[in-house]
Amino acid sequence: MLGAMFLMATSAIGPGFITQTTTFTVQLGAAFAFAILVSILIDVAVQLNVWRVVGVSGRRAQDLGNRVAPGVGWVLAALVLIGGFVFNIGNVGGTGLGLNAMLGLDTKIGGAISAAIAIAIFLSKRAGVALDRIVVLLGVLMIGMTAYVAIVSQPPLGEALRSFVLPDTVNFLAITTLIGGTVGGYITYAGAHRMLDSGVTGPENVGPITRSSVLGIIVTGVMRVVLFLAVLGVVAGGVALAKDNPAASAFQAAAGQVGLRLFGVILWAAAITSVVGAAYTSVSFFTTERTSPRTRNLLTVGFIALSALAYLLIGAAPVTLLVFAGAFNGLILPIGFTVILWVAWRRRDLLGGYRYPRWLLGVGVLAWLIALYLGWSSLAAVGSLFT
Predict the structure, then answer these.
(1) Is residue 160 over pLDDT 60?
(2) Which of 131, 179, 114 has the alpha carbon at shortest distance from 277?
(3) How many whole angstroms separate alpha carbon 222 and alpha carbon 323?
(4) Which residues contact 17 (CB under 8 A, 6 or more apart)?
(5) Tens digits of per-residue pLDDT, 168-197?
(6) Which of 216, 234, 267, 279 matches a 20 to 30 Å C-alpha distance to 291?
(7) What does the alpha-carbon distance between residue 356 and residue 208 come to, in Å, rounded to a whole number?
(8) In contact, 90 and 322? CB cutoff 8 Å
(9) How far apart are CA 274 and CA 10, in angstroms?
(10) How far apart are CA 356 and CA 384, in angstroms?
(11) What is the average pLDDT score of the chain?
């Protein structure tokens, strides 16, 4: 369960997460704290429902979708595969950038080495244990190093704390972007599907399922907060960050060359755990509990290898493809979450007779409305590709 919790958290903490947090901190300053708080609350509402329905039913999201309406599960699986693959090209690129900042390696060589490390995890005889331990270790490492830089940068804590509840401005774009980046696409199901593999399922395990889902979001939120504070301290000190790589320049401004190297470690850890999370979760949508672990691991290895090959051939995911994949990821949340809420509301037979809490269903509906807004924004992004 610890591995499932950290897989969800580290899947969310990718290269885009770091750039996104830095950019909004520069734009909004301390007021960004409120957007972080609101996004965490909505993320908790989504994950509480996803983990509970998947965990109590003991079925993967695509299986639930097909039982609610034939074919819905496969549509959801296709969306996850498309979005996960294209974004994994960017994740492999992020590992290359991380090793470049850390060791000065060429970005393509760094990406290839990192992909080989990720593949080695799934070729291990104890792949499940290796996966759990690595995501926990790298998750703790990322938070610890970022917290060090946050302390060194000396952010205005009083102003930040006030802005969590009384911000000078409220930016809804920032809130919706954070939600999409934390529980959008394959990330929504990364931890829940890993939980199924751990065997913790059924109504009798509601307690640990609930605790793990909330703690996973809290881990993500802690990383978001310490990164926000690290950048805020630099920005509040009047330092102008580089536009091409604001996060790296923030860490360098806070702690010199040591800060730059730490940024490389953090970016690499964030990227490689996202490579692993995207591959594992995407493959979980096309396999069942009857699929042997070896077959599942080989499919995951193939997914990572194809992502790495695409990155080496084109250098990075083309902007149009990334927008297209982002649009698909925006559609995954409302489609998949509709299935989750319908099962919670109308399909007690799939939950083993479990009586679903009405308060949790109500909280889920509120989060679903936000998901619809994100999905609508995603459709607009698709339309922009053809104009």
Answers:
(1) yes
(2) 131
(3) 28
(4) 181, 182, 223, 224, 270
(5) 888 877 787 787 777 777 888 888 888 888
(6) 216
(7) 16
(8) yes
(9) 6
(10) 40
(11) 86
Distance, CA of 174 to chain centre: 16
Tell me the CA distances in angstroms from 229 to 35, 175, 251, 285, 348, one per residue in order.
Answer: 14, 17, 11, 36, 44
Q: What does the alpha-carbon distance between residue 78 and residue 332 come to, in Å, rounded to a whole number? A: 10
CA separation (Å) from 144 to 133, 149, 219, 265, 364?
17, 9, 12, 11, 32
Cα distances (Å, whole numbers) of residue 354 to 69, 204, 273, 344 = 21, 10, 34, 9
Please tell me the distance from the alpha carbon of residue 75 to that of residue 78, in angstroms, as a whole number: 5
Closest by alpha carbon to 88, among 280, 284, 331, 287? 280
Tens digit of each residue's pLDDT (9 = 90 or more) over 207-256: 888 888 888 888 888 988 999 999 999 888 887 887 777 888 888 888 88
Instruction: Scan for tokens 């917290």, then name that residue.
Output: 147
Burial (Cβ within 10 Å: 0-12, 13-18, ≥19) of residue 347: middle
